[in-house]
Amino acid sequence: AVEAGMFVDSGMFPERNGDGIKRQIDGGVGANSVVARDADYFAPVCSHFGNNHVPSQYKSACEAIGGCTLCRPEKIVYINELDEEDCVDRRMAEFQDHQAKNMIRPEVQWYGDGYVVVGMFVPVDERTAEFAALEIAKRMNLEEAEVIHKGVMHPSEGTFVEVKGRFLQDIDPKSLVIPKKVVTLSDDEIRKDIKARPLKIVAATVGQDEHSVGMREIIDIKHGGIEGFGVECLYLGTSVPVEKAVDAAIESNADAILISTIITHADIHRTNMKRLDQLCREKGVRDRLMLVAGGTQITNEIAVESGMDAGFGRGTKGINVASFLVERRRKMSAAKK
Predict the structure, then answer these.
(1) Which strands make up the sheet holding 115-122, listed edge to edge?
(2) Is 266 a domain residue?
(3) Where would you tag: which of 241, 298, 323, 324 has the fewest CB atoms within 10 A of its CB?
């Protein structure tokens, strides 16, 4: 069948027009390269594919050679690089000062080689996008830039381009401003607190926004949401007026309002958050309601500036929100004493 070209064709299936890929049984690449093992074949290693006929005088296969490298790793002999000029020792010697100061530089193949990959969408044809991307990389101060991938997303839209280049500047970790990492309470502590003091929230995607996936991820028990910690959730849906969210929280005697605001045109996300804070103050409930906002463009800093108690962005999980609600409620209770 293989010789007749019936086994693999050139991809015109189901039609067959004599386009099969033929292979000779007694010739061609790899012919006579498979050698049958002797009946008493023995390999003195412990990890072996196929039948290994270990002589009866040995308890293990590698006993015949005093242990294989799998059983005795110390038998592995380190062989240094053969080229004395192009070797790791010489390359590392160039960066002794760099290492001593704990400087940071991206790398791929060698220490401190500086290679980075930048992905970008360029709204022009493929050919123009390629050279535009190289110019962009040049202005980003990337050296030795080259296009490693390009693909037309749609002829009327543009091209996605990936550029490889070298970023040869050092970053001093001492100069970095790194915000303090928020410590999340444990699952058990959150559940214990909410069981002792039931917690109810009202959730909605506000404004003229139909996005729902993010909010459902945060509240739905199926996605590890806050329902799983015992939080009672009243979900109002999408495109909910801010006023409705506040009224629902008051009517249900909720402890918090969670809003999702994805759309950011004309800073509408900031407007929605400020409006929520303002309405709660006008109705005299701001001091008892926790206000939380989330969305792809939301940060805690933006949310707090806009009157929220906290903001959550990309990568947020239900436990992050649940932990905040529990800790915030504790602080509010302590402040009233």
Answers:
(1) 115-122, 158-166, 143-154
(2) yes
(3) 241
Token representation of residue 165:
């280049």
Judge if 196 and 321 occupy the same domain: yes
Render pLDDT for 198-214 as a digit per residue (tens, 0 to 9): 999 999 999 988 898 99
Tokens encoding 304: 């707090």
Structure confidence by residue, pLDDT tens digits, 315-335: 999 999 999 999 999 999 998
Backbone torsions φ then ψ of 9, nearest 5 degrees = -110, -175
* DSSP secondary structure string for all residues of 303-335: HHHTT-SEEE-TT--HHHHHHHHHHHHHHHHHH
Contact 44, 67 (CB under 8 A): no
CA angle 256, 261, 267 (to 5 degrees): 120
Please, where are the H alpha helices in the chain?
88-93, 96-100, 126-139, 187-196, 213-219, 242-251, 268-282, 300-305, 318-336
Which domain covers residue 247, as residue numbers? 187-336
* CB neighbour class for 324 (10 Å; exposed up to 12, middle 13-18, buried from 19): buried
Say what the pTM is. Answer: 0.68
Strands 158-166 and 143-154, by their bridges, are antiparallel
